[in-house]
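Q: Guanyltransferase, please. Structure only.
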Amino acid sequence: MTHPNAASRPAQAVILAGGQGSRLRPYTDDRPKPMVEIPGTGTPIIGHQLAWLAEEGVTDVVVSCGHLAEVLQDWLDSAQLPVSVRTVVETEPLGRGGGLKFAAAHLPHPDRPWYATNGDIWTRFSLRDMADFHTERDAVATLALARPRIPWGAVRTDGFGHITDFIEAPPSTFEINAGVYVFSPEFTTLLPERGDHERTTFPGLARERKLAGFPLPQGAYWRAIDTAKDLTEAAKELAALGR
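A: Structure for Guanyltransferase:
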């Protein structure tokens, strides 16, 4: 039986892959951040993302390139891809919101909803569930929310200032923007031509109760690949997951 929300689940997505990746040097000296391979997998981050999007019902992807765009384009041209991919390159910096608007203009179905993900996110969870959550809340935009582990050990104290426990790398008490989104078709018109949508579009939608937050399911794998340490940790975690 078809799920009642199946028709509103996106089949198109944007990957924002234009970042400099300066904190991942030397890996990013000769390639953009999404082209960095997760050790032991033989596949760049963007390869994992495209496989995940395909598993979740996506057929068309627009990849927004910037830094060392030709390296990414060459790989996409030569790889066996599970989805149809188109690349776009910003000729001038448009900011995060402007870049998203520019990429969205190249989606095959502007009148239908779409996913977006940052090019440095390595995750696995049900995008279909997130799309249904978005529809049920009548949202214009939905952000995936993660609780990353704090990289330090934490301490717990009692009311008298005595330390009662040590907790190694506890999850954050705050949820953060996990860099994965569901957008309704009208979202594109609300994006700035240039500038940062997280300072303009998102706060406006939040005031109108049109911005939803989808908590990542318990145990879902999520990591932002920002530093060399993140690469090492991702490789360790993937080995533990048997992937």
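A: Brief note, in case it's useful. The CA atoms of residues 59 and 83 lie 5 Å apart.
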